[in-house]
Specification:
12 strands; seven-stranded antiparallel beta sheet; about 200 residues; three-stranded antiparallel beta sheet
Length: about 200
């Protein structure tokens, strides 16, 4: 079947993308606004984009041409923190996806602990084993949208926080101890599952 996105509903395109581009890592993004109020929300349109220097990206939809608090906060402050979600945190991560009023705290709702970062004002999630403090370097809003589109945020990682419990020698990560979760379609998530190795050609 050939599917032309110009002649397909946004809802159906969403189902195709989120059902085929899987599994997707989850960027659990914490921010603060100009008044100092904290915000925390998960984004599955998220990934690393390079290590020299380290950068990550996430995108946030603008349904009805309305910015999410995360987007407004990052545009105001130029900073954010990516916290990684794990199996033991997945319920709390899901709780933070609730639509709260501006100024209401997802940290309090999910009973999570905000702790100060080192180089940015946005807080880190204490319970997460991986936090990346980021400075915004670029943002781009998708063009030709029908209902608000999405805005891509690219941030330079200026500080990593890695829990000792998942860190091996030579900066390798212990996947068995880390136990990250990934996003699938609908209400579905996945664990790492079976891991196999393939050596690259010389």
């Amino acid at each position: 079947m050939q599917i032309d996105p110009l002649h397909t509903s946004q809802k159906d395109i969403y189902k195709i993308l989120t059902g085929t581009v899987i599994p997707r890592p989850i960027g659990w993004v914490s921010t603060t606004n100009a008044e100092g109020n904290y915000n925390l929300a998960p984004f599955s349109f998220f990934n690393a984009v390079g290590e020299d220097p380290p950068h990550v990206m996430f995108s946030t939809v603008r349904t009805g041409n309305i910015n999410k608090d995360t987007l407004n906060n990052v545009l105001q402050t130029g900073e954010f923190v990516v916290n990684m979600a794990t199996e033991d945190l997945v319920e709390k991560m899901n709780t933070t996806s609730a639509n709260l009023k501006p100024g209401e705290s997802e940290f309090e709702l999910a009973e999570l602990t905000p702790v100060p970062s080192v180089l940015v004002k946005a807080p880190r999630v204490l319970e997460s084993p991986v936090n990346m403090e980021c400075k915004l370097v670029h943002h781009y809003s998708l063009e030709d949208h029908k209902n608000g589109g999405a805005t891509i945020m690219i941030g330079r990682v200026v500080m990593f926080h890695i829990d000792d419990s998942i860190l091996l020698d030579n900066y390798k990560i212990n996947q068995d101890a880390y136990r990250p979760v990934a996003r699938l379609a609908g209400w579905n998530y996945s664990k790492l599952g079976e891991i196999f190795s393939i050596k690259r050609p010389e």
